[in-house]
Amino acid sequence: MADTEARIRAAAIRLWAERGFHGSGIRELAEAAGVSSATLYHYMGTKEDLLAAIMRDGLLRLLELARAAVKPAQGTEERLSALVQLHVLTHAVRPEQTRVVDWEMRSLSTEHAAEIVALRDEYELLWQEAIDEGCRSGLFRPAHPRVARLALLEMCNGVAHWYTPDGPLTLEELALRHTEMALALLGVAVPVGVDVVRRCRDLITLMWTD
Amino acid sequence: MADTEARIRAAAIRLWAERGFHGSGIRELAEAAGVSSATLYHYMGTKEDLLAAIMRDGLLRLLELARAAVKPAQGTEERLSALVQLHVLTHAVRPEQTRVVDWEMRSLSTEHAAEIVALRDEYELLWQEAIDEGCRSGLFRPAHPRVARLALLEMCNGVAHWYTPDGPLTLEELALRHTEMALALLGVAVPVGVDVVRRCRDLITLMWTD
Amino acid sequence: MADTEARIRAAAIRLWAERGFHGSGIRELAEAAGVSSATLYHYMGTKEDLLAAIMRDGLLRLLELARAAVKPAQGTEERLSALVQLHVLTHAVRPEQTRVVDWEMRSLSTEHAAEIVALRDEYELLWQEAIDEGCRSGLFRPAHPRVARLALLEMCNGVAHWYTPDGPLTLEELALRHTEMALALLGVAVPVGVDVVRRCRDLITLMWTD
Amino acid sequence: MADTEARIRAAAIRLWAERGFHGSGIRELAEAAGVSSATLYHYMGTKEDLLAAIMRDGLLRLLELARAAVKPAQGTEERLSALVQLHVLTHAVRPEQTRVVDWEMRSLSTEHAAEIVALRDEYELLWQEAIDEGCRSGLFRPAHPRVARLALLEMCNGVAHWYTPDGPLTLEELALRHTEMALALLGVAVPVGVDVVRRCRDLITLMWTD
DNA sequence: TATGAATGAGATTTCATTCAT
DNA sequence: TATGAATGAAATCTCATTCAT
């Protein structure tokens, strides 16, 4: 079977999101993936190698999407909105993988950690640049830009914690509410415009077709 | 030694904050506490009992302080400000314990989880009430109050993640910036008043003498 | 039980002499020692730690006896005879431990190897000194002293290979024949004297009472 | 590739000489031979089959050469000299294979062991016959012929242990010194004759062209 | 001829826990 | 109050081997 690797990866994400990397063993993983524990090692290298691969994938994908969302010359407000929506939607649509990415950094040994931390820093830099740009243009007025970035990211990470598609909140509402809150937090009082809504819908479509 | 129990608890908090509950064994714990692993069981019951005790303590303390901060008849703004400051300062001053409280809920088995989750819910209710009250009074205008509460809590939890007293930010700045961001997020554009600053200083004193 | 450690060590020596260090697992060892495999780790550290301990012990004992045998001012012939007899008798009386010492050096990782190799070198130096001294005095006439030392040691090591106390050869005969062969190999044609025989008997008594 | 089998065999000899049969796995073997581990099984049958084949080859070759060296009607001294030189040179020129032959007998299961042990016994019989013949003729005077044979063989086996062609000793010196020591050990005090030296040189040429 | 996929059994080691002292 | 001894169960990972392709 060629999809064995995919099954293993999916099972690992599910288990580790739920019980943590150290909280679930290789045998559970094998059973969840429907293979023997020896077969696991055919595909994953070490348990930790698999963790690193999962985190790397998640971060690379996020980074790629974020760069695409930020690249085109656009207004400061749209730029930050795009980052917020992308982040929030990713965390809502793939909560398990993002939980692993966000919470299992400490389970990496130093060799793997270096690479993964670098990717995360690269991603967060896009946020910082968007915020700084907004400050320069006078649109954003946070008392402390770096603290604002950290606060925003933590706030948006939280979505993977609590959001469930079965609840009363649609993905669009979720993303728009976070966009509003983020802008408000940065000192922008205006309600989100119609183009932001349209862009958000495009993003949701993109996430599901991808 | 009468402080053996305290040493054990401190060691557990340190270890579990750093490596996670499942990521560190009781032998490490014993060594870190300077006792034999058998002695551990004199004090802690099960490993999980100790985890529950640590979480219970942290939550009870937070709850008690939060109730004290919220009880006196006071304005909506001060009420929320007090909660934010208390939460942020607790997470800044005791990052290890709060990390354990915030992140190790999934490591509890169902028996313990019920009690701890109830405490957390009780605490979060204080936030929801403060927010709802602000909405009723017209001061807060979040598009979705429950989402706002979740966003605020995640944002404030994050402090335990990244704040370090060695950095450029004083505790007071940290707390005030978060107060401002929280109010802004809820639609209040006013800068924090002098009484909020005073109250914040009192709180910082309280945290250190306690 | 205080002798658990002794039982473990004895079992390890027996197993590793017979099947090799890598040829027998920890479970066999546990069963042979009459404990659980977890208990093993209470005493031995790592499997390799136990190997190093066994080798260290064997070499230290041999070294101590060799120094005692060589120290007193005595003739060149007696000095070498003492070394040969000590070595041969040790290999005959404790064939299993000596086989482990002689053959499992390659199973040690570099950290352990350094210490053990140093001990072995120290021991072999006593032989080299005895041979060189005999060459200086003109009693020994090997064409190549270093080769002679290596040849002698290999010859005497072999005893652990093939000697069995159930066979037709007594310990005394074994030791005396090897003394003769060693001296002959070094160019001394005289038969062993009565004092060498006496000394050999003393040594045999010593080995058994120790 | 037709030399795949040769590569596998060479890799096995190298690995097993260095780390032992049980000390190296078939994955290492596959990698060292440059094939997949599945391909191994095309050529070697079982891992143990390969070990038996390697030992069989080594012993058959030694036996054949020894018979050729001993057959022609010749003097007792030359006969033993030829055996010593052949043995020593083989162990010096092919140390890895001889180490495997000499040290991995215990890794054979009983089925294979019977055949291999028989070959070894056949070879050692040639030595015993040469020694006994020398005793009958009065040239050799060992106190115990069987012990002498064992001592000689162990001494000569040792060469595979310590000899290195990079050292100060040429192959010719190595072989001649051992011839002298062997004869001395058997009670023959005469230095080796010029014909023995000539024969030794022939043998060295033979070993390298073969 | 060669290999990737797969595995049951077993490797060494650590787990949380108990208990007699 | 404190611990060394002990363990069943489970941890991660490797073993030699088979088989369809």
From TrEMBL, chains A, B, C, D:
| SUPFAM superfamilies per UniProt | Homeodomain-like, Tetracyclin repressor-like, C-terminal domain
InterPro entries registered for this protein in UniProt: Homeodomain-like_sf, HTH-type_TetR-like_transc_reg, HTH_TetR, KstR2_TetR_C, Tet_transcr_reg_TetR-rel_C_sf
Q: Which Pfam families match?
A: TetR_C_24, TetR_N
* Region forming the signal peptide: none
Gene Ontology MF terms in the entry:
DNA-binding transcription factor activity; transcription cis-regulatory region binding
Taxonomic superkingdom: Bacteria
Q: What keywords appear on the UniProt entry?
A: DNA-binding
Which sequence positions fall in the DNA-binding region? Answer: 25-44
Q: Which residue ranges does the record assign to the HTH tetR-type domain? A: 2-62
Q: Does the keyword Ribonucleoprotein apply?
A: no
Question: Which sequence ranges form a coiled-coil region, renumbered to this chain?
Answer: none
Q: Which PANTHER family does the record cross-reference, listed alphabetically?
A: HTH-TYPE TRANSCRIPTIONAL REGULATOR RUTR, HTH-TYPE TRANSCRIPTIONAL REPRESSOR BDCR
Name of this chain's protein: TetR family transcription regulator
